[in-house]
Amino acid sequence: MRRKNRQAIYNLSASTKNARKEKQIVDGQIIATFGRHCSVETEYGEILSCVMRGKKSGVTCGDQVELKSTTPGQGVIERIKPRSTLLYRSDGFKEKIIAANVSQIIIVVASVPSFSEELITRCLVAAESEAIQVLIVLNKVDLIESTRRAAEKLSLYKALGYPLLQMSAQKSVAVLQPYLKGHLSVLAGQSGMGKSTLLNALIPEAKRATAEISTALDSGVHTTTHSHLYHIDSDSDIIDSPGIQEFGLSHIKDENLAWGFVEFHPYIGQCKFNNCRHISEPSCALIQAVQEGKINARRLAFYHKLLNH
Ligand SMILES: Nc1nc2c(ncn2[C@@H]2O[C@H](COP(=O)(O)OP(=O)(O)OP(=O)(O)O)[C@@H](O)[C@H]2O)c(=O)[nH]1
Ligand SMILES: [Mg+2]
Ligand SMILES: [Zn+2]
Question: Taking Cα atoms as reference points, which of 196, 222, 23 lies closest to residue 108?
Answer without folding.
Answer: 196
